[in-house]
Design brief:
Rossmann fold, 2 domains, 7-stranded mixed beta sheet, 11 helices, 11 strands, about 40% helix
């Protein structure tokens, strides 16, 4: 067992009770690409070449971790988002494809040079760092309640050559700090109801940070209401607020924003035709 072909056959046998055949092949490709710094084409061309014993041992260890349902992104310690590599830790969610769509919506609409952009609940920093790579001349800020997440986000910004001001702050108590005004506020806050845990895979429940995911069934829009209130206080006139949302509460989120005085509220579907994003314009002050 000393070639990529052999290792894939080993993984197919060892993980057959945990993953589908397609999933196992994807996991193998991810592992080969990340650890051997190769492309999928190179994997195909070199699949029968001998590998170092250290790599074989590492691969076997990864397979053992995969048997516990630990996500490959946490095992490898990184993932790709918007074409950029991001390191992760236990306090940061694994970025999802729909969040990439939220980033691209902001980029498509355009942000003027000099504008100040805030990412609330920044986690790994995937949203704000990606915006920093895709937008020119903007001032970037990110906040999170978790010091470990903020440290990881700052590291990801440095690794990708993006200047971001990160701070540890609890947005539910934002009144305790002084804030500047912002031209764009974006957030992918906790929005999964506690009752939805029964529908989720153990890979999420056992490994991703619960406080970044869940909200009480009695108040599923608690973060949206608070962040929208923050926007009324700190969003420049004509500034934009962007949310990723729970698809079950698209209409309710739109109504909430309109009731709080936001204009041009737009609900957008993701590539899977699910209502997952909202944009609103604020005309409150400044």
């Amino acid at each position: 067992m000393n070639t990529m072909f052999d290792l894939q056959q080993y993984a197919l046998q060892e993980l057959k009770d945990t993953y589908t055949e397609h999933e196992i092949k994807v996991l193998c490709s991810l592992t080969f690409c990340k650890l051997l710094h190769c492309t999928n084409i190179e994997i195909h061309l070199n699949k029968h070449e001998f590998l170092a014993k250290t790599f074989v041992d590492k691969f076997v260890q990864i397979v053992e971790e995969l048997k516990t349902d630990k996500p490959i992104q946490y095992i490898l310690g990184e993932t790709e988002f918007a074409g950029i590599d991001f390191q992760l830790n236990s306090e940061t969610l694994i970025p999802r494809p729909e969040t990439e769509e939220l980033v691209m919506w902001i980029v498509e609409l355009g942000v003027q040079p000099g504008a100040r952009v805030l990412d609330i609940g920044t986690g790994s920093g995937c949203i704000i760092v990606s915006l920093g790579k895709l937008l020119k001349g903007v001032r970037l800020c990110g906040v999170d309640i978790s010091p470990e997440a903020v440290e990881q986000a700052a590291n990801n910004a440095r690794r990708n050559g993006v200047e971001v001001k990160f701070e540890v702050r609890d947005i539910l108590r934002y009144e305790e700090w002084a804030w500047p005004s912002f031209d764009v506020i974006v957030s992918n806050p906790p929005y999964v109801r506690e009752s939805e845990k029964a529908l989720m895979h153990d890979r999420v429940l056992n490994y991703e940070p619960s406080r970044a995911l869940f909200v009480p069934d009695t108040d599923p829009l608690m973060f949206y209401r608070k962040i929208a209130g923050f926007g009324r206080d700190h969003l420049n006139r004509g500034g934009l607020l962007f949310f990723e949302i729970n698809e079950a509460f698209g209409k309710e989120t739109v109504e909430l924003l309109r009731e709080m005085g936001y204009e041009d509220v737009e609900l957008r579907k993701d590539i899977n035709e699910r209502e997952r994003m909202v944009k609103a314009r604020g005309n409150f002050k400044f």
